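FW: tagging you since you asked about this chain on Friday. Here's the raw sequence from the shared folder, copied in full. Didn't touch anything.
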Amino acid sequence: MAVGDRVTAGVVAVDMDREEARLSLAPAENPKLWAFLSRRRPGEVLSGVVAAIERFGVFVALDDGPSHPLFPGVGFITIPELSWGRIDSAADVVQVGQRIACEFLQFDTYNGEAHLSLRALRPDPFQAFAETVAVGQTLRGPVTKLVPFGVFVRVADGMAGLVHSKELTSPTDDVLRIGDEITVAVTEIDRAQRRLALSQRPARPDTTTSRHSHSATPGTHSPTHPGG
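HL: got it, structure written out here
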């Protein structure tokens, strides 16, 4: 391709602030694939076969979709969308050749693929746990991880919460080790962010105050740590 060549392209994104449009040759080069993906809607359930497992996710060959010109499948599941719990490898959840059903998340116009979620069609253990506990309730469990800002404590099967350093009765390095059993009180249950905050200190009367200032931002040091 050279300057001055005429091309047929599709608009995949518009930046109103910069007054720019991002174009792609893919719609013209793979019209069937583009038409298929453009018709998909978030929440739609798609089925297919696991075509390949990579360290960064899983490719899925969808039953109703065309093949992809580059990838093993049109569908793609990132590692976090495979399971609600922590996993070491995608192979812990699925195998090549396995038939699965997934929820459609979005159309990746850059790669020309469907982003899918396997876990979205499975019960969220955090929500089930949240139904059984209340703020102020005391629980007991082992310390599963020591971090600079506190400790994680497993309070149920596959469910751990953060005791921030300010909520510990003594400095972490002085008394706590991984495996130590401690009693904690639930101080916050954030169902939207899937966060559980705990404290070694007695529950205070005012339990409505948000403790987000004591919690790290999502994606870094989240108070929720399913799988402990």
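FW: The first strand starts at residue 10 and ends at 15.
HL: agreed, and Residues 31-38 form the longest helix (8 residues).
FW: great, closing this out.
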